[in-house]
Batch of 2 targets.
Target 1
Amino acid sequence: MEKNFILAGFGGQGILLAGTILANAFMLDGKNVTWYPCYGAEMRGGTVNCEVVVSDTEVSSVHKQDTDFALVLNQQSFDRFVQRVKTGGAIIANSTLVAEKRLRDDISYFFAPMTKIANELGSSKITNVVSLGVLSSVCKILSKDALKNGIEKVLGTKKKELIPLNFKALEAGSEAIVNV
Amino acid sequence: MKDCEKVLIKGNYAIAQAAVNAGCQCYFGYPITPQTEIGEYLSGKMQELGRGYVCAESELAAINMVMGAVSTGVKAMTSSSSCAVALMQEALSYAASDELPVVLVNVMRTGPGLGYIYPAQGDYNQAVYGGGNGDYKVIVLAPSTVQECIDLTYRAFYLAQKYRNPTILLADGLLGQMMEPASFGKYPYPEIDTSAWALSGAKGRDARAIYSCARDEKAQIQHIKDLFKKFEVIKENETSFEEINTEDADIILTAFGSMARNIKAAIKVLRKNGIKAGYFRPITLSPFPSQRINELAKQGKDFIVVEMNMGQMYKDVKYAINGQSDIALVNRPCGEWLSVEEIVDSVKKVMEKNYATSL
């Protein structure tokens, strides 16, 4: 088993951090995993993405042409990465900022108002963790508990006070698809 | 893999922390993407530990500072990327002749010229054959995973001091920027006694000097011969490679560095397609595992070299094969790493064409 995830959105939406939490979650779940960011002349307000590959055995290619899951938080990222989802794969989009269009019939679409949910929880900054919650509800190999471990690992002791809010965001995200 | 010691870490930070664990006392460097995290990490860490850190005014200054530091017997390093490592070539020639244990990390980006910040493997020749003057050789180690970034950084410091020879860790932007679980363990090598040659202050003994040349023909001839004799010993003792499924293979895929991850996956796909493919990865690019490649070629096994440059390691593999079997090149000069699917397709095409030429 080898699956890959592309996470993409505006710079400032916490994409790289979400990818780091995701990769830690898989690592703590006993899997092999890699995380690779786009890097270049990126700037605030521009788009940013990272790729996470998880495998039962050694991870082969770190940076792939197509993806099993695309988690996109803004319209530009949706337009760009919907093309790269494998047949049978899924795109999970933030419907607060992305128009709900389903132009391909060979992939699954999941829309959830991630920024809206985050704002209701008190901060749009938590959109990235809401999105991971949504991802966990559509991705069988990713459990909410693993993500909780990932959050604890990344926030560590320095930002321990933020853990309850992040857990709440994860829960809210994981229930979003059913509720919509 | 449920080892609690594992941490998810970027290749660049892994190299930096490994250097700290290896006992690196001084870091000198100048920022350049995609390896800036190494200097960034060490700027804080070295101060915290009371060790030396200088953000040099140029790459030329940085490597000369390393030469100064290691000549006193301590471990020191610099790190940089492709076009800036080009600026350090003169110093590498001097350090090889001076027999100084300089450690240089090159996190490769695209070239030639200024190139671009994305990963590539175009510095194979620069590292292995060098851009400095004269007959000299450096040790070159090429990691393919973040774990190896740690293991080979340890080894680079050890080999540099053991043989008093400049040693390059040749990583690439992909390895530098990616995160992967890895564990540090402890620096696994013994400390090398440098007291017999280090410029540590002449109190109580005769003064010493380190020269890069002998001003006498015979002595200079002997000096170069000694350097090459030393490298023969390095070749004998330190050549290393990774080999999978070569025993029954008809065709062997070979690549160095992070590109090797993709050929490792490709041979599994090829085997499922009924092609008996094997995997061979040089870990030391210099000394190059020519002898093993020659043995495999002697058994009639053909080779396909996969690399992100115009065919630099290809020439060394071809030289090692020495006409005993066929060889082809699958490459791209820079940009996105050749995917597993592209490699599998290319290998099939090469085999259909009966190994005619490179793609």
Target 2
Amino acid sequence: MAYSFDFSSLLDYTPVLVDGVATTVALTAVSTVLGVALGIGGAAARTSSVKPLAVVVGAYVELIRNTPFLVQLFFIFFGLPSLGIRLAEWQAAVLAMVINLGAYSTEIIRAGIEATPKGQIEAGASLGMTGPQIFRYVVLGPAMAKIWPALTSQIVIVMLGSSVCSQIAAEELSFAANFIQSRNFRPFEVYFLATALYLALAVGLRWIFSLMGQRMFAKGVSRA
Amino acid sequence: MLNFTLWDILSNLLLAARWTVLLSLIAFVSGGVAGLLLLVARVSPVPPLRIAAKLFIEVFQGTPLLMQLFIVFFALPLIGIETSAWTSAAVALTLFTAAYLAEIWRGCVEAVPKGQWEASASLAMTFPEQMRHVILPQALRIAVPPTVGFSVQVVKGTAVTSIIGFVEVTKAGTMITNATFQPFLVYGLVGLIYFALCYPLSLSAKALERKLNVAR
């Protein structure tokens, strides 16, 4: 018997899907801002001359990059309560995403920082700039411009990875898809649509980031 | 109530880790073969093949692995193929790996100087001959470090298969947690097992890269 596809039954669930997309976007937006901030801090620490700080951040980066996001999420959501840290689903999801993106972006931004020509740092120092000033005005801008495409890819990966947050009942897009298929028993149609929505989100995210990159970095180093 | 010793928990997790390793190997090897075919299509002189390969890669890199798993899990029965969690996991991870490896390798192929293509074409080599004798041997050298690096993503990707009910180390962790009520310990150990699997791969990728840079 041939299977007859029925996408029309999904129409009734439009609000659920819209909510799911909105939650995925919100999770991604918040964790991008916090995760990249963490990454900038991490990269500064990793390239700093304070050895213990560099080592600790290095251990954090390796630990996160060599374990699956799903396990990090479970550890935070199910494991931390035994230390008395109880988080709501969305809080655990955001925390896991921030920690995850923080580790990857530390490594990416560090690569950009290390590509800064030494002469520029010396030039900054000879202008009487302090270390933090050099980092802020001389090193960071060009570094971010260099690694912008890599950072964009990583943020897309984190957005796609957020789909497993459905497993701790954070109500994002995959959760919405699971919910709908448990109601209308049309798993293929639901997941197909959800996948298409993720693809659209990924394409949209890349587009936004390339526009941002053009705006922020088009004039090269003259910014700041 | 039963009591579980640390060794009970760890030994069961390690037993389940066999399936993580096996699934990773299957996905990596079959994904590598499929990725090679995809790569040839992606750089071939035939436009429809190129476009189809590009589309395949875009779709698999732009959608979550979890959704790919669900679609394979629910779509294969629709075309009359009986699926288990095993087959679905293997098929989805193979396609996922193929897409990423093809894209990584495309970068390596493009790093081969254009003159090599032109020289081999001027020797009247056909496209398969060019690939076989001129391009791939040179691309292979630079492809090794990022390929080893990507194997870490494959191992970590297998964790997601726990969601469709494939019993590997993450799923085993969930099951053991449900019996022991010690999520902190169990998921901590699960994380360490993954780390023990992945960190050597990451290190060797880095070492290979360094070796290659020195050679150049």
